[in-house]
Amino acid sequence: MPAAFLPTGAKSLKLGGVSNFQAASMSEGNPVKLGLVIEGGGMRGIYAAGVLDVLHDLHLPFEGVIGVSAGAIHGCSFVSGQKGRSLRIYTRFCRDPRFFRFRNWLRTGNLVDNDFCYREIPESLEPFDEEAFQHSKMGFWTVSTNLETGRPEYIRMRRCKGEMEPLIASASLPYVSRPVRYQGKLLLDGGCSDRMPLKAFEAMGFARNVVVLTHPVEHSVKDRDAALARLFYRKYPAFCTTFENSPVDYEKTQRYLAGQAAAGRIFVIRPRTAIPVGRLSHDPAQIEAAYRMGHDDARRLSAEAAHWCAEFTQPRI
Question: Are the CB atoms for 157 and 141 separated by under 8 Å?
C-alpha cells in the first residue's frame, strides 16, 4: 500500500516488499484485502472474460472487483458467479444489429442499443443473477469519466437491476454514445480517464491485487481517439484535456504496474501477443479465439496465482 494511504502514524519502511504496517497486520492474524482489477478494450475485453472464468473455478478470496468499460461488463458477471455468460452473450449477439451498429448511432446517438443490451439481455435472453450479485462477498466498482470535471468516477454498484447507469456509463464510448446522467453527473467511458485503476483500488484498501490486462507487455499506446475531442466536447475543456493526456497517463500506469509486480504487490495476467479480434468485431470465431487466449493464459498461471494469493490472504499466527 502506498505510504500516502497508510493510517496516521504508520511508517512506510519496507520489510521484504511489505510495509511494516501490513506485516504487523498479518502477524496479528489479519489477512490482506485482495482485489481484482480488470482492463477494458472493446471486444478485446472478451480475453478478460476467459481469464475470469478460470479465476471463478479457483475460488480466490477476492473482496473487491473493479472494471473499466468492457472490463466492468465482464466483471459484473464474475461477481454474480455466472461462468461462461460473457462468452455466450458475445458469440450469440455480436451479429445482432441491436448489439452494436453504426445505424444505431445515426438513429439514436448510441452505437449500442442500451435497452436491448442492459434490459432485454439481462432480464430474459441471458438472465443476470441479481440475487447472487447482491449477496456476493465481493464488492463491485465501475470506472467512468465525469464530462464536467474530466476526473474518473469510481462508483460502487450494490445492485444492477434498475440501477444500470454506472455500468452503462463505464462502457459508453466517446463520440458514439450519449453521456449518461447519474446522480447529477454526466458520465462517459472510464477508459478516457483511468484505463487501469490499480492506484484507485489500492487507495480503497486493496493492498494486493490480481490485474487482468488486454494488451501484451510490448504494446505501445498510439491512441488517436482524442483527436476530435475539442470539436465534439468543446463545452467540456477539462474532459478534453484528460482524454488527450490518456495515452501518456496509460504509459505511466504501465510503469507503475511493472514496479508493483516486481515488488510482489500485484499478480498480472495479460496476453503474450496481441489479441486477434477487432475492437468492434462481429465475428463469433474471432471472439471465441480471444476468449480462449485468456482462458489458456489463466490456466497456465492458475497454480502460481493461487499460491501468490494464499501468501497474502491467509492469517499468519
Answer: yes
**Single-letter amino acid code for the residue at 24:** A
Place of cell 445515426: 106
Name the DSSP class of 162.
T
Q: Which residues of 104-128 are buried (b: 16+ CB within 10 A; e: fewer)?
A: bbeeeebbbbbebbbeebbeeebeb
pTM over 0.85: yes
* Strand duo 34-38 + 64-68: pairing: parallel
* Residue-level pLDDT at 7: 28
Decide: helix, strand or coil at residue 113. Answer: coil
| The pLDDT of residue 111 is above 70 | yes
Helix (H, G, I), strand (E, B) or coil at 140: strand
Spatial distance between the Cα atoms of 96 and 99, rounded to a whole number of angstroms: 5
Classified as helix, coil or strand, 54 is helix
Write the CB contacts of 147 (distance below 8 Å, at least 6 apart in sequence): 179, 185, 186, 187, 188, 233, 236, 239
Model confidence at 223, in pLDDT bands (50, 70, 90)?
low
47, 292 contact by CB (below 8 A): no
Q: What is the pLDDT of residue 257?
A: 97
Whether 35 has a pLDDT exceeding 90, the answer reads yes
